[in-house]
Fold this sequence. Notes:
The complex is a heterodimer of chains A (357) and B (340). Helix content of chain A is 30%, strand content 22%. Chain A contains 11 helices and 12 strands. In chain A, strand 4 (80-85) and strand 5 form a beta hairpin. Chain A has an 8-stranded mixed β-sheet, sandwiched between helices. Chain B has helices at 51-58, 86-92, 114-126, 130-143, 149-152, 162-174, 192-209, 220-226, 244-249, 254-262, 302-306, and strands at residues 9-20, 23-35, 40-44, 67-76, 79-80, 97-100, 180-184, 212-217, 229-234, 237-243, 312-313, 324-325. The two termini of chain B are 12 Å apart. In chain B, helix 3 crosses helix 4 (130-143) and helix 4 packs across helix 6 (162-174). Chain A binds chain B through residues 60-61, 167, 169, 197-203, 205-206, 209, 224, 226-228, 230-231, 251, 254, 264-277, 282, 284-285, 288-289, and chain B through 46-47, 161, 163-164, 191-197, 199-200, 218-225, 244-245, 248-249, 258-260, 262-267, 270-271, 273-278, 280-281.
Amino acid sequence: MRDAAAPAADPAGPLVQVEDLKMYFPIYTGILRSHTGDVKAVDGVSFSILPGETLGLVGESGCGKSTVGRAVLRLYEVTDGRVVIDGEDVAQLSAEKLRRKRPTMQMVFQDPQASLNPRMTLARIISEPLDEHTNWDRARKTERVFELMDQVGLNRRFANRYPHEFSGGQRQRIGIARALALNPKFIVCDEPIAALDVSIQAQVVNLLEDLQERLGLTYLFISHDLSMVRHLADKVAVMYLGRIAELSPSKDLYARPLHPYAEALLSAVNEPDPELAARRNRIILKGDVPSPANPPKGCNFCTRCPRVFDLCRQVKPELSEVEPGRFVACHLYGSTAAAGSTGAPEATERNQQGVTP
Amino acid sequence: MPDGAQPVLDVRGLKTVFRTRAGEIHAVNDVSFALQSGELLGVVGESGSGKSVTMMSLLGLLPMPPAEVRAGKVLLNGQDILHLPPDQLRRVRGAKVGFVFQDPMTSLNPVFSVGMQIMEPLKKHLGMGRAQAESRAVELLELVGIPDARARLYSFPHQFSGGMRQRVMIAIALACNPDVLIADEPTTALDVTIQAQILELVKELRQKLGMAIIWITHDLGVIAGIADRVMVMYGGQVVEQAPVKELFANPQHPYTRALLLTIPKITGEREARLKVIEGQPPIMLGAPNACPFRARCEYRHAACDATNPPRRAVDGQPVGLGHDVACHWHAPARTEVAHA
């Protein structure tokens, strides 16, 4: 059922459906390089994105958000789980099928300096995907490159220049043009504005929004900038230590975060308003994020959670819908699940794995 | 804000240039500011606006050449430190002025234990012996909130997390009880929850130790939370300077005004579209005799190309003490803030 006859995409259904995604990186130690453990960078993540929608993926460094982005596009061989994009399980595709799938799913990287080949001209960078995936003639490719440059607001005269001649914001535009070259449906934006100056960030964000509107793109927008994610995303997933703590519509999450981690994270954001800053009640979390190679037993967040109680240290809470459209992995909201947990914990949710010790 | 008293740090007309093959880069152009004791001055600007170079010029931390501090005075407690010979300047750095850098990984020496690195200024500047320095180092680590400080004294930087390393950096900067602490983007490399911890720590230390702090950042949100006064830099110049509430409530410079609108908010109404400042920050090649912001300014007129606007007072107080702005354009009057 996992393979082959992939069901045709339901037009009303999600474009991207991720189920129980796991990405472990093995740790080898000793002179024999024996496999002694795993860094559980992503440990059972599920979400779906509707066509034309933006899912924001937020969290602190090391929480696994970039790994999710890469695993979804199968830049890593995933350890376990399903990643259905436009009707096909990307995690299971053969090399040849995956190659043919690539044009529908693209990526914009964080560092525009490192992700552009310094020895290639702008035109060659943008047309590289066309060389790989189409058999167009030269004239047609050039035409397409110019069209893309217009779309992202790069002057056509720049076509023969090299990446170092551009500023950070312009380089990010080149990266976006390259991602758009093959008319993708789905783009993973991995911290696309983190390396840019404040006054340039807004330019790139507005461009991403325009393109989405014009081309009907679907984004997975990975960022640690919570206020920018609020601006861009329809739904937001908050990750902590390889798992999703809360997945809610953006409006609801920012108005009233449910998961204690989401609450602390939002309260830590600095609002550019001194009056508000003085009034706001900050939740200062103690300590650091534990190592994903050795996550705490029970809830991942139990070592820092201000509202921790006994159950949290024993049982890993599952992501479940606590309000319409809002999914939270926290025992505080699991009154029914917690009461019934002695009975049939197996039956509760799909990303089950961790419960049985 | 204390006023009238002699400022701890008084910088006047500082000019720093870099000589490059393409010509002279005017990285810091006629920057003046005064820091009162116990005050926290926030310095905001984009990369290349000259905020770090200004602070490094003060302490002679720039490689010269290519850098050259061409003019200006830097008075620390009344003493001009800009023209001190190197050995005397060394006695100022670390002892009277502490410096915390952005990246706690690269600014700590990986081959020495954190204890050694905290004890170094104590031995050098204060002439402490080993035992005394050791106990003071433990005290400092406790002060910055490192648990089990005595046991961790001889741990190495790689054994600490980013937030903990930044705490160690702060402990080193505080070691000799400096009059001024300069923090250059100290929380930029940290995650938001860790950043919140460090900001909380600095607020606490300020109350406890009462030193003056210069906090350099590009994050207006951080500034709003901790600063008393803010200096906005652009193109190597101070374009606006005001008490923090006044700056956010009544920004005068087109750059400050636009900057405040480009940042999406975390509360309140979600903006339909972000305001954009078109164009790029300038490269300050050649003599700065026009407004550095003119190419991106929506209020540009003939005067902006002709002369570089000097700082002028907005609220009647002398430039540098109240609210001042360097702009030819006059922002339309707004309703006064409660008690500006």
